[in-house]
């Protein structure tokens, strides 16, 4: 694994992906942000050695390097999920590569179901913490000592220092920002009413099918994570309604403009 990470990083450096400061993962229906990056290098996942290939239509499947809000960024337009059939090491391989290339901060975004009854579809939630409810962990197996410790702790995976900057950014661009705990579940089905109730009882505010594996490899490498969940549908056990994939993607698309503004302002403000 270490050899693969080094080899792919070298390959990307040769292609111009040099010294990124911030790594960004764009979730379901959120490629809009990618369009405002001043692109210096771009590759399709299929042209990058050892990268998996995205199977979800709403994910572009491109690695982009360039400038955004005065920062050198490397961005995944399209990520990988457990439900697609990948194992957790494969899912997180591109993230490890982006961080190995030198990114000092990881920004993740995702589409999520809201289980906090005060939330509304279309809103954005800043992730304060997570619960790993996925059936596995990318840190399983022989530890990659060159990247981080065998037993990383769970302290401030999403450091408050960066949460504060995100909240200030949201105020400045006048976008309401919720805060809460993200729980990752394997999917691909959305939850039953009973499951949404359970997830709420477990202490979560939103539920989705990604992000936690990526945050875990970042924590392993001692890289702070900033997470944004777009609430695309509400999981209210006593008010269950049919939810289509189109509904989820449409709501993600509606929030995209806000997310773009928010992340841009965040990048302008953050110092690394
Ligand atoms: N549950 C799980 N994952 C999701 C949801 C949901 O309701 N919405 C978007 N991703």
Describe this structure in words.
The chain has helices at 2-14, 32-35, 88-100, 160-172, 193-201, 212-220, 245-269, and strands spanning 22-26, 38-44, 62-68, 71-77, 105-114, 124-132, 177-184, 206-208, 225-234. Helix content is 32%, strand content 24%. The protein starts with a helix and ends with a helix. It is built from seven helices and nine strands. A five-stranded mixed barrel has the order 5-8-7-6-9, surrounded by four helices. α1 (2-14) packs across α3 (88-100). The protein has a single domain (2-269), classed as Rossmann fold. The protein is an alpha/beta fold and 272 residues long. Hypoxanthine binds at residues 111-113, 187, 190-191, 207-209, 232-233, 235, 248.
Number of continuous helical runs = 7
List the bound ligands. hypoxanthine
Point out poorly predicted stretches.
none
* Averaged pLDDT: 95
Number of strands: 9
H and E string: HEHEEEHEEHEHEHEH
CATH superfamily: Nucleoside phosphorylase domain
The top-level CATH class is Alpha Beta
Number of domains: 1
Class per helix and strand makeup: alpha/beta
**CATH topology (fold) name:** Rossmann fold
3D shape = globular
What's the CATH architecture?
3-Layer(aba) Sandwich
Helix content: 25-40%
**Distance between termini?**
28 Å
Largest sheet: 5 strands, mixed, barrel
Pathway: Purine metabolism; purine nucleoside salvage
Domain Nucleoside phosphorylase: 22-268
Family: Belongs to the PNP/MTAP phosphorylase family.
Organism: candidate division TA06 bacterium 34_109
């Amino acid at each position: 694994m270490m050899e693969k990470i080094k080899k792919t990083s070298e390959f990307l450096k040769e292609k111009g992906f040099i010294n990124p400061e911030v790594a960004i993962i764009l979730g379901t229906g959120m490629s809009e942000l990618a369009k405002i990056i001043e692109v210096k290098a771009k590759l399709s996942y299929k042209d990058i050695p050892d990268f998996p290939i995205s199977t979800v239509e709403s994910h572009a499947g491109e690695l982009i390097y360039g400038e955004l809000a005065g920062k050198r960024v490397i961005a995944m337009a399209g990520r990988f999920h457990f439900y697609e059939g990948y194992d957790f090491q494969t899912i997180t391989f591109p993230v490890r590569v982006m961080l190995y290339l030198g990114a000092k901060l990881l920004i993740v975004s995702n589409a999520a179901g809201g289980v906090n009854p005060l939330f509304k579809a279309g809103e954005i939630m800043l992730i304060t913490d997570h619960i790993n409810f996925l059936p596995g962990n990318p840190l399983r197996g022989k530890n990659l000592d060159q990247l981080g410790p065998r037993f990383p702790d769970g302290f401030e995976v999403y450091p408050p220092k960066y949460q504060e900057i995100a909240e200030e950014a949201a105020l400045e661009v006048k976008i309401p920002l919720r805060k809460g705990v993200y729980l990752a579940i394997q999917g691909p089905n959305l939850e039953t009413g009973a499951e949404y109730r359970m997830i709420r009882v477990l202490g979560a505010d939103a539920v989705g099918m990604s992000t936690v594996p990526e945050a875990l490899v970042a924590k392993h490498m001692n890289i702070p994570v900033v997470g944004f969940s777009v609430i695309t549908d509400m999981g209210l056990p006593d008010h269950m309604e049919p939810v289509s994939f189109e509904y989820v993607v449409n709501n993600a698309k509606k929030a995209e403009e806000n997310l773009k503004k928010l992340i841009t302002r965040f990048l302008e403000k953050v110092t690394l």
